[in-house]
Write a structure and sequence with these properties.
The protein has about 180 residues and is α+β, with helices and mostly antiparallel strands. It contains seven helices and six strands, in the order H-H-E-E-H-H-E-E-E-E-H-H-H. The strands form two sheets. The chain has a four-stranded antiparallel sheet. Strands 1-2 form a two-stranded antiparallel ribbon. The protein starts with a helix and ends with a helix.
Length: about 180
Amino acid sequence: MSRVLGFPLDGVDRLFLGADEIHAIWRSVEGPLIVGEFCLVHLHKSFTGDEFPPDDPTLPVSDYAKLGALKVIDSEPHSGSGSVTGMYVTASDQHEIWFYDAGLHRLERLDLDYLAYLDAVLVTKGTCGWQYLFADVDLNTTEMHTTAVGLNVMLEKFPEQFPEYDYEPLRQRLEARL
C-alpha cells in the first residue's frame, strides 16, 4: 500500500488510530451557528471495503468518472449532505485528494496529501466546507456564500476556543479565495 500511496504507512500511524473509522458530528450551542462532521475511514477499509462514493450523473464526464474511482476517506453520513472526500490513485501510482460536494454538485481537487488532510480535519474539526480552503475556487460567489460565511465564523471563533492550533494559514487561504 505504501507504494501506491506515495508515503510510508508509519506516517499514518501518528494520526490515525487502528479503528475502522473515527466519526464526530457537532454544532455550536452559542453565537453564530457553526456545524461540522467527519467520518474518517481507515485506509485499508477505503481500499478493500464497501465504502463507495455517491453517484452524480450531473457532473461533467471526466469528473463523473473520477468520482466513481475515488476511495472514500472521509464522509458526512449523518448530516445528510452526501459530501465525501476521496483518494484518487493516478496511472502513475500517485495519490490525489478530491472533495465532492453533493449539495453543489462540485468535485474539487484539494491541495493536500493524505497526511495533511488528516491534520486539517483535526484543526477544522470537520467544519462544513473546510475543504474549499484547499481547492482552487472563488468563494465570493452566490453559490458559495453560505460556505464562505461558515468558514469566516469558524476562523473567528476557533482561535479563541482552540488556542493550541494556528489558524492564520487557514485565514490566509480563505482571504485568497474571497
